[in-house]
């Protein structure tokens, strides 16, 4: 039993990060834009309308604030770990050092599902926006090739979703610096588009649209908060980049906290204006931001918003797929997954095989599976990871009180405990089918751990 809870020492992790197998080329600004690239996308351009119409109404603003608070508390915990243990793998690595190997494996397994499904789901959203943009120019792709089987549209494959995933895979396999340059450009474009919406939309706000403010009651607000958690997935991805940052102890906490702060402010502002422009009952559409501008007669700006949405969703794809590869890379390097997943390309200095394998699986899922039912799995996976990192920072303070920390969570253990409890509370608001699927996935993970990982673990050897 003791072997299940064996831990990697902090010194081992630091030595591992100093081996420089990955190229250190990212700055604090790159990390901030990486986080914004992952956070601002599907949340603003898709989820805002659906959650307002079905769960929260105009109180969507409160849902985003609650999610932002939960994420902010978790972000502090991430920042302390990243400044102390600047190693790839994010909460998987942090759990390995504090909670033990079996917990680390299951959290890593959970993150892999979270990022993989998120990549496929976001690619499906990208496909929908891309088709809408082409339709604006009178170009209509055949339904047979633009939707997954079972989606009700008669499709056999979502080809645009497959193509965008392969393009992102090709970019990521070339190197993180090249990827971050593309990400930075696209982030500035989508931020400009969002600011255009805010500045334009404020003149069309009608206060009567905010009445009733919470038509679904407090329960609806909490359900909305649990649902929009998908929108905050990105800042976790910043922590996975620790081994490719020039000054990780300083820059990773800056990247995590600043990207989360920027995105929370933008989410609240967009929600406030969106529900003021359009009655919440009419917002259950795939493109609520563009729809709101069309609703008030700003059709030309709606087209610009669609371009910004495609750009925004592309950056989300880029970052969450990058994070998926870095988590499986770290697990492979520790012997918990096959070694080929941690092989580094001699020229590009990236996990080349891992990147293409991940891209291929994500493309198959996006192309052939309707992810409507599975979308909430991304939320429960994120909340489970945030709960683990909140508990792990309490353990780290007890087990390594003298560890050098460039950033420290205030009021330990109170704030991390509140963070964990808030995440667990939000998890209880997710549908039963989500919990069933999550338990099944964890069960599969346990089979793989006892059948393979436990016997191939480098720490065990």
UniProtKB/TrEMBL annotation:
Keywords: Membrane, Transmembrane, Transmembrane helix, Transport
Origin: domain of life: Bacteria
Chain segments annotated as transmembrane: none
Keyword Transport: yes
Pfam families, sorted: AA_permease_2
Subcellular localization(s) per the UniProt record: Membrane
Membrane topology (UniProt): Multi-pass membrane protein
Keyword Ion transport found: no
GO cellular component, one term: membrane
InterPro entries xref list: AA/rel_permease1
GO molecular function: amino acid transmembrane transporter activity
Main localization of the protein described in the UniProt heading: membrane
PANTHER family, per database record: CATIONIC AMINO ACID TRANSPORTER 4, INNER MEMBRANE TRANSPORTER YGJI-RELATED
Designated name of the protein: Amino acid permease
Species this protein is from: Metabacillus sediminilitoris
């Amino acid at each position: 039993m003791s072997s299940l809870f064996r831990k990697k020492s902090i010194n081992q992790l630091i030595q591992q990060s100093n081996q420089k197998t990955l190229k250190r080329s990212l700055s604090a600004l790159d990390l901030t834009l990486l986080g914004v690239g992952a956070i601002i996308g599907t949340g603003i351009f898709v989820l805002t309308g659906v959650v307002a119409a079905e769960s929260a109404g105009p109180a969507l603003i409160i849902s985003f604030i609650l999610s932002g608070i939960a994420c902010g508390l978790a972000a502090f915990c991430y920042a302390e770990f990243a400044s102390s243990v600047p190693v790839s793998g994010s909460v998987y690595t942090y759990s390995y050092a504090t909670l033990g190997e079996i917990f680390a494996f299951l959290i890593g397994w959970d993150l892999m599902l979270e990022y993989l499904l998120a990549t496929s789901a976001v690619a499906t959203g990208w496909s929908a926006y891309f088709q809408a943009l082409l339709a604006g120019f009178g170009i209509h792709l055949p339904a047979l090739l633009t939707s997954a089987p079972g989606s009700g549209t008669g499709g056999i494959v979502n080809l645009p979703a497959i193509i965008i995933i392969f393009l992102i895979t090709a970019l990521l396999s070339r190197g993180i610096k090249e990827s971050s340059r593309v990400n930075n450009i696209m982030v500035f474009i989508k931020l400009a588009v969002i600011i255009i919406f805010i500045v334009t939309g404020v003149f069309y706000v009608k206060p009567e649209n905010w009445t009733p403010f919470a038509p679904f009651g407090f329960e609806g607000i909490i359900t909305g908060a649990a649902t929009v958690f998908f929108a905050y997935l990105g800042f976790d991805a910043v922590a996975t980049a620790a081994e490719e940052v020039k000054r990780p102890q300083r820059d990773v906490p800056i990247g995590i906290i600043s990207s989360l702060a920027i995105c929370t402010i933008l989410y609240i502002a967009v929600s406030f204006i969106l529900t003021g422009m359009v009655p919440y009952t009419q917002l259950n559409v795939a493109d609520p931001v563009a729809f709101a501008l069309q609703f008030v007669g700003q059709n030309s700006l709606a087209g610009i918003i669609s371009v910004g949405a495609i750009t925004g969703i592309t950056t989300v794809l880029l970052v969450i797929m990058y994070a998926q590869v870095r988590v499986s890379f770290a697990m492979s390097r520790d012997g918990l997954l096959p070694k080929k997943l941690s092989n580094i390309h001699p020229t590009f200095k990236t996990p080349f095989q891992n990147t293409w394998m991940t891209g291929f699986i994500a493309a198959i899922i996006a192309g052939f599976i309707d992810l409507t039912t599975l979308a909430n799995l991304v939320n429960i996976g994120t909340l489970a990871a945030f709960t683990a990192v909140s508990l792990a920072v309490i353990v780290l303070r007890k087990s390594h009180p003298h560890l050098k920390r460039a950033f420290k969570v205030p009021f330990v253990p109170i704030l991390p405990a509140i963070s964990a409890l808030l995440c667990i509370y939000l998890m209880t608001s997710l549908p039963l089918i989500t919990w069933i699927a999550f338990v099944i996935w964890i069960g599969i993970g346990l089979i793989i751990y006892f059948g393979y990982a436990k016997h191939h673990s480098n720490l065990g050897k």
